[in-house]
Amino acid sequence: MPEPLQSALYRLLHHRSFRDDFLAGRFDALGLEPRELCLLRAIDRAELVTLSESICRNVLRGELKFEGGLRGTFPDLFSLLERKGCAPLEVIYRFVESPEYEGARQLPYGGAGISTEEAFFDFLRREGTLLALAPYAPLLLTHEFLTGMLAILVINRDPSFELRTPLIRSNGAARYAVQRYPLDFAQSLTERPLSADDSGQVIFLYVAAPGRLLRGPSSAAAVALVERGRKQLDETARTLAERGVLTTVASLSTLADGLARLGVIA
Length: 266
Known about the structure:
The protein has 266 residues and is of the alpha+beta class. The chain has 14 helices and four strands.
């Protein structure tokens, strides 16, 4: 199939604005050559609408053969947006028309690309207006993205998609992410009573260790060990002391042993 025609078919299926122009007969707005337009006009319009809707519903709700859908990864975010008057399927229509979605790897045997989850995360952060509907929507997006991606990495240590986000790092033993959240938002993520640091924030640690996902409030000492490992514990203790965190080499060693048993550090 010629590349221009293949591109036009992709846009008909995935770009609602392009599809609406086609269905309304606004052919001059499509930017197509007469031969391409002649071929496309033979398409069954009802089937086109049905298939495009099916693509979006599968992205939202999942297709058992390939993935669980974005609503499964971002359940609270979609519920929040829905309460603010934004229908989940409307969000997906906008996402599927985005360059982020086009750059994702939608099938396990497709070309190189990021996961649909990371593409959606990038889309919402760039697009911005949806996240502005609620104060903590950006934090909720980040929390559910990190939880979902690291859960995938627990099961699949060598995924077929590319992981490009700088939020997720590797220490050689596990992949992990560290975030700092305002106390009231962090408290909404756990039933355990929390206390904030002097800046009013709480450290949240996410780890994809072998066979388990670990996430929750963490200490600065634990994060330092995840980032630096068990080497030079005395230097780690000094660095923490400079940040106002008083600890001892002995306590760091005990903590490191526990993290190593969990597979968090080597």
